[in-house]
Amino acid sequence: MLNLSLRLRIFLFFCALAAGMVVFSGVAAWLGYQQYGDPGASSAFLFTALFAGLLSLMLTAGVWLLFDENIAKPIERIAAEMRARAHAGINKEIDRDAAKYLGDLAPAAQAMTQQLSAATLDNAQTIAERTASLQAEKERLTAILSDIPIAVILVNPNHQIVLYDGQAADLLAFEGPARLNAYLFDYLQAAEIKTALKALKADDLPRITFTAHSRSSRDYDAVIRPMGRDGSYMLTLEPMEDMTEALSPGAERPLVYDFSLIEREKRCDIHDKALRDLCYVVFDTETTGLLPHKDEIVQIGAVRMVKGRIVPGEKFETLVNPGRAIPASSSKVHGITDDMVATAPVIDEAGKSFHHFARDAVLVAHNAPFDMAFLHRHKARIGKTFDHPVFDTVLLSAALFGGSSPHTLDALSDRLGIRIPAQLRHTAMGDAVATAQVFEKMIPMLEAKGFNTFGDVLGEMRKHQNLVEDMNA
User: How far apart are CA 190 and CA 184, in angstroms?
Assistant: First the structure.
């Protein structure tokens, strides 16, 4: 019973009350008949019992509807709003009109959240000062690296990328988009690197130079250095062939990193993985229409999230040639015309590139069945199966804010204090970024409700499949 939602528990309470009233009406009529009735009056007592039972049901249903609308729903809404303010950094006033029949609850909740916001601001100021110092150090390091035409990659003991600079991103891009926490061997062949690591360990060397080969057979002068005794290592690459444009001294060299990834990840079933230990690719598509069985994709936009945060710079965006005319009504919504997609890749190529970008990640989308239907339909042409685990922000919204709340992307963004620029709304990248920002705020809220693992969240999402289909097999 404690696992049921508040509204469902109240509904069951009123069902039990209605059943009890019907039973009592029947018992009262039967006792009256036994005491005062005669054989000819049985139909009158039966009619009285039925009529009293019906009135009891109607009265109970009416009281339940009023109670649900004015008590249960507002309590559920205030609880969700308080959780958003406590765990997602929202600083908006609680809607007091929605809780006007709850006495002093809404003002008390607002006072508590204001105190929480004040404390949060103090902490944020301290964090901002420390962050500014770290950012200055990062910019100095970036400036130094900009004059060195060598790509730098830091890898953890599981051979997953912990840090890469702009030069490394350019080199890795020949094999596919650079991705934090991706396996190094998605880009470089494993044999030479594993051999070099064994030599380092056997001879206790500080570094070793060798030739590395990419998966597409490009050759690099490589240097590998161990980083401590936990098995992590630093890899530097310099092209052996003429690739001077990829490694231009003085070019912008942004660093992408998350040093928390350097710890060896424990292997476990995805259902037991913590939400923050999962990689996510949040994506959106724009299409020629709203019928997945016959319409086509015209744009895909996606961003990656690692350790519960959006990774700056790790984006995937492409127009897609649908092989047919785009209706004017669709162009009016997303702004994509036939001329814009004339030279764009078809779904075969675009879908394969997106599949590589989303490798080993949980896919996240708003109303995922719509977007996934297009990808599933073209799996034969793409040559890849999109069998990723899937989170749907519609279902996550229902889990956090209750089934009766609106779950549109605009409503969610407004509720969580996210602004979608008008010019980016209904573009694949604009909606993907907004969905990612929504999901980023949802993660701590889900954890606060006790949904800490993928399996926990999946079980809760499936309770709301009346809204949209859950895409996990």
Answer: 8
Same domain, 256 and 303: no
Q: Given the structure tokens 């004059």, which residue do they identify?
A: 147
Cα gap 238→221, rounded to integer Å = 5
First to last CA, the chain: 27
Task: Express each pLDDT in 1-33 by its tens digit.
Answer: 666 778 888 889 999 998 988 888 888 888 877
Tokens of 445: 């809220």
Q: How far apart are CA 99 and CA 402, in angstroms?
A: 15
Closest CA to 188 of 231, 149, 236: 236
H helix intervals, 231-364: 328-334, 338-341, 347-357
Give me the phi and psi of 16, to 5 degrees please: -65, -40
Q: pTM for the full model?
A: 0.83
Would residue 122 count as lying in a domain?
no
Give CA–CA dist 354/97, Å, rounded.
45
In a domain, 120, yes or no: no
Q: What does DSSP say about strands 362-365 and 280-287: parallel, antiparallel, or unpaired?
A: parallel
Q: How many residues are present in the chain?
A: 473
132 assigned to some structural domain: no
Measured in whole angstroms, the distance separating CA 96 from the mean position of its chain's CA atoms is 30
H or E stretch covering 81: helix 73-87
More confident call, 228 vs 174: 174
Cβ contacts of 70 within 8 Å, gap of 6 or more: 101
Two tokens, residue 33: 């008949």
Rounded Cα gap, residues 277 and 267, in angstroms: 11
54 and 168 together in one domain: no
CA distance 11 to 34: 35
Which sequence positions are flagged as catalytic? 426
- Which residues constitute the domain of residue 27? 6-113
3-state helix, strand, coil in the chain (%, to 5): 50, 15, 35
Give the total number of structural domains in the chain.
3
423 and 276 in a single domain? The answer is yes
DSSP-derived secondary structure for 16-34: HHHHHHHHHHHHHHHHHHH
Where does residue 339 rank: exposed (0-12), middle (13-18), buried (19+ CB within 10 A)? exposed
Give the dihedral of Cα atoms 68, 71, 76, 77; nearest 10 deg: 110
- 397-448 per-position pLDDT tens digit: 999 998 888 999 999 999 998 999 989 999 999 999 999 999 999 999 999 9
- Is 420 in the same domain as 330? yes
Residue 1 lies in a domain: no
DSSP code string of 430-454 = HHHHHHHHHHHHHHHHHHHTT--BH
* 8 A C-beta contact, residue 181 and residue 161: yes
The H or E element containing residue 280 is strand 280-287
